[in-house]
Amino acid sequence: MSWYTDIFVETGRAPALWLIIAFVLTFAITRWVTRRLRKAELAAPEPAQADAPEEPVKSGLLSNIHLGGVHVHHQVWGILLVLIAGLLEFRYSPGSPWVEILAALFGAGAALALDEFALWLHLDDVYWSEEGRKSIDAVLVAGVIGVVMLMQADPLGLGLDGTESGWIVAFVLIVHFTYVIITFLKGKLLVGLVGVVVPFVSFVAAIRLAKPTSFWAHRFYSERKLERAHRRYSADALRRWNAFRDWIGGQPGPNLPASLDRMVHQEIERATVDQPASGARTATR
Predict the structure, then answer these.
(1) What contacts 16, CB < 8 A, 6 or more positions away?
(2) How is the chain split into domains, by residue range?
(3) Contact 249/131 with Cβ under 8 angstroms?
(4) What residues contact 105, with CB distance under 8 A and at least 6 apart?
(5) How many CB atoms lie under 10 A from the CB of residue 277?
(6) Can you give the pLDDT at residue 31?
(7) Which pLDDT tens digit goes with each residue over 15-25?
(8) What are the pLDDT digits (tens) for 43-70?
(9) Phi and psi torsions of 184, nearest 5°
(10) Which of 17-26, 89-98, 123-132 has the highest average model confidence (pLDDT)?
(11) Are 103 and 133 within 8 A, CB to CB?
(12) What's the chain's Rg over C-alpha atoms?
């Protein structure tokens, strides 16, 4: 395979290639497994008694992993893989093919960890909730970064050969990444990452309206300008973007364990029953 040697090995891009392949495959397999498990959990019958402990749902060879009664999320295995691959690379710096193997392990670990990015952020099991869509965003961002690494792109097209003035290069980089950071602050994460490679994209995104939920809009926009942002980023646009994320990761839905869900309903019913009595006592005062 001379083409593989010429294009990837000789240019030093082979590790990035295997990292991306492992990342994409691991994420796809992980989401397939979690969808199967979720389908089995939603189809499982409720325990006969309200206070009966729930049994871990099993679906053939696919089942959640529990150690000591604690559900071990797959991000744990991902973090371990990333740590092991990083430590081995830093310690031994092996050549081919071991560096490609370590890159693949790192990519697989990164996929497992980022697939539960929303859990890091919220410190709660929000995998199948609305907040869980942030994990899909994190995976897409990581994928774009991986492609940029594989391309060995020169974001500004400077073609540095050591003859450029350091001050000029520093000025151009500062201006460019200022636009990129503004794009991020305006809530356009994916566009900002594309703008790292294509400067014109980040420039246009930085001068256009921010998303109404972004830090930039809340910090700098007046009510009138915020209304303009809401009109531009309408509910229809958000639904289309959510539909795309749900196509990749699965549609959000019930995320509470059945036992916890029953506890919530019991509290609501108790509060509803107690409310008239409380109102009656207030009326007699």
Answers:
(1) 103, 146, 149, 150
(2) 1-43+55-152, 260-285
(3) no
(4) 22, 81, 84, 85
(5) 9
(6) 93
(7) 999 999 999 99
(8) 766 655 545 555 555 544 566 776 776 7
(9) -60, -45
(10) 17-26
(11) no
(12) 25
Select from 61, 33, 32, 17 the least CA-distant residue to 152: 17
Q: What is the pLDDT of residue 284?
A: 42
| 3-state secondary structure (DSSP) of residue 225 | helix
Confidence of residue 189 (pLDDT cuts 50, 70, 90): confident
Q: What is d(CA 209, CA 225) in angstroms, rounded to the nearest whole number? A: 9
Give the C-alpha separation, 112 to 75, whole Å. 5
Q: Which two tokens stand for residue 137?
A: 């965003």
- Give me 105's structure tokens: 């392990």
Q: C-alpha distances in angstroms, 23 versus 104, 106, 122, 240?
A: 7, 8, 23, 25
Token pair for 243 = 């539909």
d(CA 126, CA 266): 22
User: 218: which 2 tokens?
Assistant: 């809340």
Task: Report d(CA 24, CA 145) in Å as an integer.
Answer: 13
Single pTM value for the model: 0.71
Percent of the chain as helix, strand, coil, to the nearest 5: 70, 5, 30
φ, ψ for residue 58 (rounded to 5)? -120, 145
